[in-house]
Predict the structure.
Amino acid sequence: MSVLRIEGSYSLEGTIKIQGSKNGVLPVMAASLLHNGTTVLEHVPKIQDVFCMLGILSALGADCRMEENRLVISASALTGTKIPETLAGQMRSSVMLLGPLLARLGQVETSLPGGCRIGKRPVDLHIRGLEALGARVETGDGRIRAVCPAGGLTGVNIHLPYPSVGATENILMAAAGAQGETVLTGAAREPEIEILCGFLQAMGVSVEGAGTPVIRIRKTSAFQDTCFFLPGDRIVAGTYLGAVLCAGGRVVLERAPAGHMERTIATARQMGAQVETLEQGIRVSMRGRPRPVRIETGPYPEFPTDMQSVMMAAAAIGYGTSRIRENVFENRFCVAKELQKLGAHIIIENKIAVVDGVKALKGASVAAEDLRGGAALAVAALAAEGSSFLGGYEHISRGYEDISRDLAGAGAHITLVP
Ligand code: EPZ
């Protein structure tokens, strides 16, 4: 397995072009199956989760062609309704196929999704939403089987008791193929919901309220061929912003979606970074060690849980004591024990991580156990004295096109050792 070798204590200077949004493109790829025609997606990140989704779409009979960051999906002749178990278990987003396949083909079978082990991550809210639209859903022995009534799905009022991102996306995709209007209340407000709704609108679906807790959706015409550009990945951009917090320097993050990074940018400023919004993205500058901070993660527009590990890394090298409360996932502090191998002083008290900043971290061999924890370790190693070796690269490549290319482009001494 490949290992990242990272030399610490070099400040960063330069420009990093931010890849397309992973959590934006995955539901959009699933939604493309609603249409028995062609979808062209631009600025698609070349990451493992996208390749896994391509495998699923192809297994269902779609013709998928990826050239660089351009993806053409022809879904005119779907041949199956079963998601291959080996692929379904590789990522959380395989559950995203439930909605579009129910709407398009009237049935779907998959296994419980995989993804980062950051909590139990049930799918009960997905299932309740699909049942409200008329589907019959059976679960058991790790499988999910869903079938529509003869007349297909029927629009209805649905309330989510928790603003689950994935459940919101699945319900919206199913409702896009239902008869009549669906009003979803308690919807997630993440930028990725706006991306999916923008794509559905481009395909000809009437959607109102994207980004708010109340979304109205109704299919008013046949789906259309669509060309859609994915915005920059707000978490990848936040990761590299965190790299500047840790290593210091001055970096332009091209295509960083500043408008969807408010809490991340505000927190970086509290920690002492200068963050300027530019036409092409943002510029981040940092001198000295980060100041202490209090962070509480929550559903958008609260502080993003996906940024929690990276900010823990920055706090680990900072002044004073920072407190980070994780409210979204019940097991998202795994990275703390690996940061401790680099010399970080972190104590976990139930949902709170108490981080006592240290003057210097020391290079060590550490291992990623989940996607964002792995990225946080790479960022922390930039601030450690000496060499660090980061294993578990297969977790990082699920969401980052080429983290060593990106950071090296800003002056970091980082290489992927096969
Ligand atoms: C999406 O996961 C993202 N993944 C996650 O990013 C992100 O952390 C999360 O949203 C929150 O923003 C993708 O978009 C592929 P949720 P998702 O449903 O949809 C509970 C990354 O690093 N819940 O909003 O799974 C759940 O257990 C990944 O890119 C239920 O109880 O998130 C969790 O505690 C990690 N029942 C909370 O809700 C359900 O049916 C939030 O989950 C669904 C969720």
Remarks:
- Residues 22-23, 26, 92-93, 116, 119-126, 162, 164-167, 190, 192, 305-306, 328-329, 371-372, 399 surround EPZ (CB under 6 Å).
